Amino acid sequence: MPGSRTAYPFSWRVMDALEALAALIWPRGLSRATPYLMLLPAVLLVGILVYGLFQIGDASLRTLDTSTFLFSEDYSLANYRRAFTEPLFAAVAWRSLMAAVIVTAVTLIFAFPYAYLMVRTRSPGLRKVLLIALFLPFFIGQVVRAYGWLIILGNQGMVNEALGLVGIPPMRLIYNYPAVLFGLVQYMLPFAVLMLAPAMAAIPEELEAAAGSLGANWVRTFRHVVLPLARPGFIGAGVVVVTLSLTDFAVPAILGGGSQDFIANAIYDQFFRTSDQGMGATLALMLVALGSLVVGIVFAVFGAGTLGVEGRRR
Amino acid sequence: MNEPLSKKIVLWSFVLAAILTLSAPTLVVLGASFTAGNIIAFPPQGLSLQWYAKISQATDLRNAFLRTLWVATVCTVIAIPVGTLAGIALAKYRVRFAKTLQIYLLLPFTIPLIGSGIGLMLVFGNAGVLGQLWPVGIACAVINLPFMIWAVTASAAGLDPDLELAAANCGAPPLQVFFSVTLPAVMPGVITGSLLMFILALNEFLVSLLLVDARIVTLPVQIYNSIRSIITPDLAAISVVFIACSALAIVLLDRLVGLEIFLKSK
């Protein structure tokens, strides 16, 4: 019979075999459990991370014997005592927290007009340009971006060379706190805008027109209509920016040049410079706790915003 | 709508400042990579491709780049099935403890990167697999998994459960329903998610820094190590690789699903 092969193609046979196999391993009776089976790989993958947290917890309870460079067999809270009493750690923690607050405020101030213009513009071309200007740095990675800033702001960087041409002596523009803050704002801006934009898109444009027709100028419309309605977006963006800048490593390391360490840098140094795994693990666990605390405070004060579990789905 | 001039001026001055800050490092790196001089100077000392010629000779940079590609591939290959299945399960079925599961699956987001990195370093260290590349790929898949799940659940709106029932009614067995109805419906999400996973793994710096040793450094770590010593234009040339990858990802994302997908309100 001509064409009998084409009537039942090979790929169908493969599918049949796969279906039979699937029915054998996972019979219909188990279909109620199918979603759990589908979730299992993800749960296991994240499980590695959770297991890692337990390992950090274990390591944090062991102290380093500086004469033998061995870790104690039995648990003690000595590392935690040190973390709370040593002024160095307090200074680093304070520096990171201050930076997180300042960076979040500045980032949100700049992210709002950006997201507003991107969502409200009538021109698809402009919207695309704004999106690309956002995604390009987002996809390039922190190291390359920080490298770009070194070229611009470094001691022999472009700005100083340009200043030199008009006779101004070179200034120290990097390796200080403002440089780190600036680098962080630049790093966080895409995150903040992308968190804000969906919340802005959800605000009906008619509301603004209505406010305008009732005599409100644009400043009042922003204050009384747009900003309050964009609040969930602000909370979502704020939480993301505050935690990411609080825990950042690359920007303080590269633009701070070792003089502006954040908590993450202190943790790294404990592991790879001092080789005190216990102390490093203690600081890491405390940072996890601090991050959760900050998120908890924001949620408690402002509500869960766009990050709420309910709002996240559909 | 006629916008008042003052509103335009205020909005645009913020936006222009933001665009300038966002783009400056990229443009400067791009420019510096074409310099004819031996150091990066302003005003530029003429154009040349000498630094590209130089990096094409440098085996350590090329190897670092290939290692980075490998890590990103491992990460994406793991994340696609894991994230897609989890995303569909969360969007489609009524799962018990759905809230708890969602919070659990968001852990990679909520745990600071340095914490995740240190934890994974201890786990892989105890398992004796540090010093290889695949654990770095797995680590990248773990820390970025929420992106994949988010992308798939977000596009699950395009999945009409009636279509699956109709397919089953026409005699399609479960796997066929999955591959010919369910999967195509969430495809935009799978594409978005896997592009994000690949590009994020390509750029992943901190977790790489913690998990690699001197023999298997990835490109971001290599660049980081070099800018700490001295800034030469060959680093700018190699950084252009990242800029090119990023541009490519944006073009792909725009063509396949449209960048505007990120503006949709959930």
Description:
The complex is a heterodimer of chains A (314) and B (266). Chain A has a two-stranded antiparallel sheet. Chain A is an all-alpha fold. Chain A contains 16 helices and two strands. Chain A has helices at residues 4-7, 10-25, 34-60, 78-85, 87-120, 124-140, 142-153, 158-165, 177-201, 205-213, 218-229, 231-246, 250-255, 263-272, 277-302, 309-312, and strands at 64-65, 70-71. Chain A has two domains: 4-60, no CATH class; 85-312, MetI-like fold, CATH 1.10.3720. Chain B has 266 residues and is an all-alpha fold. Chain B has a single domain (58-263), classed as Orthogonal Bundle (MetI-like fold), CATH 1.10.3720. Helix content of chain B is 75%, strand content 0%. Chain B is built from twelve helices and no strands. Chain B has helices spanning 5-33, 50-57, 59-92, 98-105, 107-110, 113-127, 134-155, 161-169, 174-203, 206-211, 219-229, 233-256. Chain B is globular and about 70 Å long. The mean pLDDT of chain B is 86. Chains A and B meet through helix 2, helix 3, helix 5, helix 6 and helix 7 of A and helix 1, helix 3, helix 4, helix 5 and helix 6 of B.
Brief description of this entry?
The complex is a heterodimer of chains A (314) and B (266). With 314 residues, chain A is mainly α. Chain A is built from 16 helices and 2 strands.
Give descriptors for this structure.
heterodimer; A: 314 residues; mainly alpha; MetI-like fold; 2 domains; two-stranded antiparallel sheet; 16 helices; 75% helix; disordered C terminus; B: 266 residues; 12 helices; 0% strand; globular
Question: How do the helices and strands line up, and which of them pair or pack?
Answer:
The complex is a heterodimer of chains A (314) and B (266).
Chain A: H1 4-7, H2 10-25, H3 34-60, E1 64-65, E2 70-71, H4 78-85, H5 87-120, H6 124-140, H7 142-153, H8 158-165, H9 177-201, H10 205-213, H11 218-229, H12 231-246, H13 250-255, H14 263-272, H15 277-302, H16 309-312
Antiparallel strand pairs in A: 1-2
Helix pairs in contact in A: 3-15, 4-15, 5-6, 5-9, 5-12, 6-9, 9-12, 10-11, 12-15, 14-15
Chain B: H1 5-33, H2 50-57, H3 59-92, H4 98-105, H5 107-110, H6 113-127, H7 134-155, H8 161-169, H9 174-203, H10 206-211, H11 219-229, H12 233-256
Helix pairs in contact in B: 1-12, 2-12, 3-7, 3-9, 7-9, 8-9, 9-12
